[in-house]
Sequence to fold (906 residues):
Amino acid sequence: MATLTTRRSASRVPAPPAWLTGAGALVALLGLLPIAYLLILAAGSDESAIALALRDRTLGVLARTLVLAATVTTASVLVALPLAWLTTRSDLPGRRWWGVLSVLPLVVPSYVGGYAVVAAFGPRGTLQSLLEPLGITRLPELYGFPGAALALTLFSFPYIVLSVRGALLRLDPAYEEVSRSLGRGPWRTFWTVTIPQLRPAIAAGALLVALYSLADFGAVSLLQFDSFTRAIYVQYRASFDPTLAAVLALMLVTCTGGVLLAESRLRGRARYDRAGAGAARPPATVSLGAWRWLALAFCSVVVGLSVVMPVGTIAFWLIRGVSAGEPLNLVWDATLNSVLASALAAVLAVLASIPVAVLAVRHRNWVGVLIERATYAGFALPGIVIGLAFVFVAARFLPAIYQTLPLLLLAYLVRFAPEAVGVTRASLLQVSPRIEEVARTLGRRPGAVLREVTLPIIRPGLIAGGALVFLTAMKELPTTILLAPTGFDTLAVRIWSATSEGFFARAAAPALLMVIVAAFSLTVVLRRERDR
Amino acid sequence: MTATVERPSVTMPQMSDPSDAPQLAFRTLALTKRFGDVTAVDGVDLDVRRGEFLAVLGPSGCGKTTLLRLVAGFERPDGGGIEVGGRVVAGPRRHLPPEERRIGMVFQESALFPHLDVAGNIGFGLARRDRQRRIAELVALVGLAGLQRRMPHELSGGQQQRVALARALAPHPALILLDEPFSSLDATLRSQLRGDVREILRSAGATTLFVTHDQGEALEISDRVAVMRAGRIEQVSTPDELYLRPVNRFVAGFVGEANLLPGEVRHGEVQTLVGRFRAGHGALADGVRAEVLLRPEQLHMLQVDRLSSAPRPESVLTVVRRVFHGSEVHHVLRSPTGFEFEVATPSSATIEVGTRVIAHARAREVPVYPLDAE
Ligand SMILES: Nc1ncnc2c1ncn2[C@@H]1O[C@H](COP(=O)(O)OP(=O)(O)OP(=O)(O)O)[C@@H](O)[C@H]1O
Ligand SMILES: [Mg+2]
Fold:
């Protein structure tokens, strides 16, 4: 299949129908709207935007943000790599369970994770109350960098676990066997043969973690670390002049764009993991021997911190809240709102992904490539930036839809379309163009081919993409707090308003529901990983 | 006939005869397609009679797939035109989309719709009206009765290709295009399926354009074969004509095993290592260098030891290698000047390596190709 798609290059692409290009262009333009508006804002400021950007305070924010992202990414790789390997290639006892547990942290939104970190390790937190009898009354300072780095690492490393594990499973064991037969021991083979083949997967996962930590708003705010997102939010709240916020946002976008570019450079030189589609021989399992106690301890610590701790914290505060008479009934309306908004966002994002992916895969001329790239711009746009841009645009030009559900959904669409495009595109690449051509010879127009052949074939991919968008939209905080209609409280908004004011008990019930709904959609996303 | 001169396509005269026009299912005229600098299809004239099975045979990259894609409507020609069933489907100012051409297509990969079962695949191109009846008919025709409810991944490679063929035949297309449909199958299955497919197409009365780079396949099942090279059609003939009288050295070498023995024309005859052959029509003047086509089975050997008189030394050959082909053995002979060619004998009459022999041709009228003509 791979050779097929690469051979039909350049001029063998048929011209796309006009409606397809139109739909794709619309999605792309929507994706470019936020940046365009922020640029206009920044350009129109009294003080020069460059001077604003070069102020000491701004440069400090820049440095802090980059250091945080680098630390979180490195730490995540160090945690994820052994986990991925242990859960795919070793005889770790309970391997499958550890495998599930190691991606579960993905259902914990960063602001819930941040809240759990504060509740567990903060002043007057669980750990301290446990240590108090031993005479320890002061813990190292948690707020600021250490807490933010810890929280972000704990809840984003699974992105790397997922991508590396996928690569490990697809890896052709023949390479390692050849290396062993040429006289290299298992350890040298691992470093010289396995790791180099994993590099693209590590890069892809690290990209997601880096983007996650650059864009995160919830954890850094709760842990009071002044990175870009928090600075932007504070700036926006503090003054009516949007210029500085816009400049900060553009600087943040430059960072995320730079990370994206760096990763695509790395990936450009990568190739397919397995030579043919041939029978997927499962790689040999490595026996850990006595090391398995160390491995078990490692897994336990990671899972303890990233799964047990947040769930335990939520449960602790939930019980405490209920026993103190905290009302539970209020949560249901927020759950409903969350599910409604996320489900609509998922449907919209998947629908929007179809023309973009079809243009990029089947009609790969410059228009198709341009549209695809423009849509991917959304990846570089943190939620706070998109939210802010839509607030400004709506307040200025479309006051009628300011603070309505459609505007929120539009912002979600820009934020999450890239995720959906990624999955749709990958599914589409697995469908041979010959299948669509056969349908044409059997009397179907391009639109009918899409409806009757292509979409039904890639339906599992569309569902997985939708579930992914649903999951992330559920967790999305900054876009939601900036754009949710008044009175339209989602779980994210509830948790945020409770935790940011220190009402941990009140945050527990929505956090629990959030985690449950998110876990459910994660299983849908992961089912696809297994099917491949 | 010797020294065949390049002729236009055999059926050309019929095209101008109106009474035969309805007989013609398909034709191309000066069809041309370029990709940048590469002219993938270069002025191709082809025609196929109704019910005929025509193979397009050529080496990899000669433009076979491009030709089929032009006919099917997936590519726009840069020149020339295409007629299907008397209707112009592509030409200057006209380009019918694939869905309006009434052409069935079968690819190398079966390209079955993975989300539809066998019946769903076969019925895809059918109108609702007598869909069920036609599906049943075709399932029986391709010998898959009882498998209607199977999904594509539950079928073997050969079964998948049968379904793909049934799917293409179902809407009664004016023309069926097959692009190397057997090449993804293993050898035994391939030769069995190729016979079956031919039979199915014959009983369906389908007109077929079949593309392959496997000459055995083309010769075995086609009514006529068009040999293609670098975008051009070199010859269109029946399989035996093609084998016995290829129009040039390329076709000779591509179809079957060919010995091209060099020689010089003298008195209207070409003198070679293995004897003299008529230079045909007296077209070749004395002194012209030429090559004579002799198939391995047209030659036979005599052992020098057993000859009554000593042969001329320059015609004594040595057996340097033997290649076993089952019923036949091919002997590679080397002349004193180092020229090598092959002679076939029945396996029972093989001669040891190292034996000195002389070779003779059984035929005297064989194709002759002047060396400076090409
Ligand atoms: N989209 C394209 N862009 C550029 N060149 C192309 C394209 N498609 C085909 N070609 C070129 O046109 C020529 C003919 O290609 P085609 O695929 O028709 O060959 P083929 O005879 O079917 O070969 P094979 O037996 O390998 O399938 C080749 O030189 C090929 O490289
Ligand atoms: Mg081909």
